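ok trying this again, last paste got cut off
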Amino acid sequence: MSSTAMKYLVKSKSGLRVVCIDESRRSPFELSEPPWIPDEEKQACIKCKTKFDFLTRRHHCRRCGQIFCDNCCGKKLPLPRMCFVDPVRLCAFCAEVTLKENEFYEKHLKTLQNGAKFHVKSSESVLPSQPGLHLCKLSSDHKELYFGAKNSLERVELNKIVELKIIRSESEKPGLSVVTGVELIHEIPGKGVCSVILSNNAHSKQSRMWISALEKAFKMVLESRGSSVL
């Protein structure tokens, strides 16, 4: 698996951050710091419209860069998606989003890195000739998914996944279905779009949890791609 990327400490006006020396090694979940709205552009809080004066000071949300009063931007939370060392000031909306993402870092990310076992079928792999279940997991640097036997380890770069298709089957209860697998549609340079199908039986709680965590990770990757364009 990929080795841990070299990192260093940087200081911005938002706070201390630990970032990768090599930009190409950054986590696909990571968000770039937003530009701050200049103080002179806002004479009142963007949310409650309270005018700024000597007593009511301007405060920037570290996630969106907008300007608020202290009442509307007083909460401080860890923000691992931007690699901050300490909790940072966030507006109410960004705080709500960040709390959900922090649950991903505390819970679902561990599920992905611990892995789950699936039957693996790949359009670009020798794995279909190898029967049985294979451990699928996320690399320590968050960049790749690994699956298969040790002697034929396959990998999919998270940033190259263009679509996730959840596979469902009929439940014992009428009108209900259960998740039994996922298809990863991804790009391979020089080969175009390929797919990997991970499947298991409906009774595997660990595999269902892993797929659910992968869905959340994929949404975060899409958000990060949009952020990097800004």
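PB: full thing came through this time. The mean pLDDT is 87.
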